[in-house]
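User: Predict the complex with iron/sulfur cluster.
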Amino acid sequence: MLTVTFSKNAFFPLTRTCRNECTYCNFRKGDFSFMSLKEVRSLANRARTADCKEALLTFGERPDVYPEFRRALRTAGYSSFLEYVCEACRTCIDCGLIPHTNAGVLLKSEMKKLKPLNGSMGLMLEQAVELECHRKSPGKDPEVRIKTIERAGKLEIPFTTGLLLGIGESEYDRMYSLEILAEINSNYGHIQEVIVQPLIGNSKSGGGRDCRSTAKRAVELGEVKKVVKEARKRFEHVQVPPNLFSIDELAVLIKAGANDLGGISPVTPDHINPMNPWPSLSFLRKELGKAGVRMRERLPVYDEFVRRKMYGSLIAKLVESFLEVTGNA
Ligand code: SF4
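Assistant: Here is the predicted structure with iron/sulfur cluster placed in the model:
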C-alpha cells in the first residue's frame, strides 16, 4: 500500500498587499490592510480546536514598499512589517500552532529573525527562468528567489519550495528548474519537499503558455505527472495539492511518485485557489483508500528534520508534544 502524508493546517492570509504583479494572481489586493493580531488569535484558536497543528502564514511580498501600508503598520504600533509578522508567529505559537511562513524573498537578517518562530519556511521557485508573466514582479526574478532558497540552506531552515506549471515555461524550463533546486539541495540539504502545482486560472482571460489566466488547470495531467516523476528522482518528498485534482488524477500522480498532499485545512479555504475547496480528510481517506493509498498526518516540519532538530527553538515544546500524539519522527 502506498502512503501519502499531509499536514492539518489553517491558512492565515496576513495581507494581500504585494509589491509584485504576477499576471495570473488570484490573491493580490491593493487595499493596504492586514490581519489584526486579534483576528490571528481568533483563527488560531479555531484551528487548534479543529486539531490543526500548522499555521500557514502566506501573504503578499514586501507590502511595506507602499507608504500607505507603512502608515497602517505605524498606526497599529509596528515599527516594521517583519516585527508584525514575528508577532503573528508568536500569537500562533501561543495558541498551539507551529508556524510555516511563506514571506516571499527575504534577506538573511530577516530569515534569522523568523527562524526561531517557525517549524519550516517556504518559497515557491515557480520557474528558474525569466517569464513574461513576471515582468512586473521584481520578487520573481529567478536569481533573487534562488538566493533566498540558498539563504535558508545556510541558516539550516527546513524549506518547502516548488514549481508552478503553466505560466509560460517550456518543458526544458521545468527540468532546468528541478535541476537548480536539486543542486541547491545537494549543497545545503534543507529542502524538505518540492511542490508540483499547476496554475489554476481566475477566468480573467485566455490561458496556457501566454500565461494569462484561465478558469481551469493550465496544464494537462500528463505534464504534471512527468514533472512529479522527475522531481521524485531528485527529492524525498514531492507534494501535489489535493484540491487541484480529482481522486483518479491524484491516484495517477501518487503512483508516479507524489507522496505528500501538503496542508489540508478543515477551517480555512485555499486563498490562492479560492475556486477549489479542500476535500475533507474523511473523503480523501476513503477515496484514496479505494485506490490503495494510505494517508498519514505529518507536522509542517518533516520527520527527518525533526530528528535533526532543525525546527525553530521557540516551537520545540509544540513539536515534542505533537510527536507524543502522532508517534512520528
Ligand atoms: S507574488 Fe504572489 S501575491 Fe504577489 S502578485 Fe505574485 S502571485 Fe500574487
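Residues 18, 20-22, 25, 27-28, 60-61, 137, 139 surround iron/sulfur cluster (CB under 6 Å).
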